[in-house]
Amino acid sequence: MNPTIPMAPTLVAMLALAGGTFLLRLSGPALRARVTFPERAEKLLEASAVVLLAALTATAALTEGDGFAGVARPVGVLLGGVLAWRKAPFLVVVLAAAAATALLRLAGVP
Q1: For the residues 14-18, what does the mean pLDDT come to?
Q2: How far, in Å, CA of 63 to CA of 104, rounded?
C-alpha cells in the first residue's frame, strides 16, 4: 500500500458513495406509489428500456475493441436469443450460446 495516500478520505468517499447508492435504490420503491407518470410516458419508458438492452446486446455481441468480433460470437448470441424466446431455462440458454461460440471458434471460425 502506498504510504503517501491517506486512507481516511478514501474511506469516507467510499462510504458516501455506498450510502448514496443505497438511498438512490431505496427511492425507487419508496416513490413508486407517490409519483405517477402519464400512460404514454410509461409506455415510452418501457420501450426505452428494451431499446437500451438491445443496443447493449448488439454492441457486446458484434464488437471487440475497435473492430468486429467475428462471426462466432454473434451466432452464439443469436442462438441464445432464440432459446430464450422459446422459453428455455436460463442455464440452457447460457450454456448453449457459450458452446456454440466455442465450437465455432474451435472449428476455425473467427
Answers
A1: 97
A2: 17
